[in-house]
Design a protein that fits this description.
single chain, alpha/beta, 11 helices, 275 residues, globular, Rossmann fold
């Protein structure tokens, strides 16, 4: 296998067996809503800082089918300025994309200055679904660990903050959510034949996910696992992780108003600035 340099790899990468699923619960709805609002407000402040300072961030979401990625992303973006972020739902590559390097279709989705790019699934499909389903040859997915690390290192060296999230649920919880989708006309479209077939390969996907953590959780772009059996907890925890990661080393204090703007407001609008 083409394994990445051990210097790049996090010393203690995550592992699915280490995710505490039992304690990851928020039982009180008021507690959930209050903490959700607080985290959303904090993230809105971070977004403004990134905009004013011209910073860029990428948030990567991976997880089991029905693990709640879409719901978490909706709560993340709910209070953000829509001009400052873009969500990219990633599905199977088009015939044109299949004829090019697998990273090609992600390179034109990188965030512009002052914005956030959110990927609902990502380039990590190479070392998971493409590995398990045989869409990539062994040599292709094996060398992808190094390629991905180099791709992300190039971005972080250029100032991009990368936050990688994996939403983990149990097979039992997934089956429960599949049943809910099947019997809910508003959610039936979310359940696919691939979702059903993939359950038969759960152990293979577990191995691939743990390999992904082992070889691509780096010091500059670590993986964050979220226990997602309980949706309220997963949504709040996801926001907490993103807030903490995006704030690290960043001054989120709003910039001072421009003196010319204050003068124009006073002279032309009669507004007296009291700051």
């Amino acid at each position: 296998m083409h394994l990445p340099s051990p210097i790049e790899i996090e010393k203690n990468p995550p592992c699915l067996d280490q995710v505490d699923m039992e304690k990851a619960v928020i039982k009180d709805k008021d507690d959930y809503e209050n903490e959700l609002k607080k985290q959303q407000k904090d993230l809105s402040e971070v977004q403004q800082a990134y905009y004013h300072q011209g910073r860029r961030a990428i948030v990567v979401f991976q997880g089991w089918d029905a693990s709640g990625k879409g719901g978490a992303i909706r709560r993340i973006t709910e209070k953000l300025d829509p001009r400052g972020y873009q969500v990219y739902p990633i599905s199977a590559p088009t015939p044109e994309e299949q004829g090019k390097h697998y990273l090609y279709r992600f390179q034109n989705k990188l965030p512009a200055k002052g914005t956030i790019a959110i990927f609902d699934r990502s380039w990590y499909g190479r070392v998971m679904v493409e590995r398990i389903e045989g869409y990539a040859k062994d040599t292709e997915w094996q060398r992808a660990y190094q390629e991905i690390n180099e791709f992300e290192r190039m971005l972080t060296d250029d100032g991009v903050r990368i936050i990688k999230m994996f939403l983990h649920i149990t097979p039992e919880e997934q089956l429960k959510r599949f049943s809910e989708r099947l019997h809910n006309p508003q959610k039936q479209w979310k359940l696919t034949l691939d979702d059903i077939r993939n359950r038969d390969k759960w152990p293979e996907y577990e191995n691939a996910i743990n390999d992904m953590f082992r070889y691509t959780s780096t010091e500059t772009s670590p993986w964050h696992t979220v226990a997602a059996n309980h949706k309220w907890y997963a949504r709040v925890e996801t926001l907490k992780i993103i807030n903490k990661a995006m704030r690290e080393g960043v001054d989120v204090t709003p910039p001072p108003l421009d003196d010319a703007l204050i003068k124009a407001a006073e002279e032309q609008l009669g507004i007296v600035y009291k700051g």
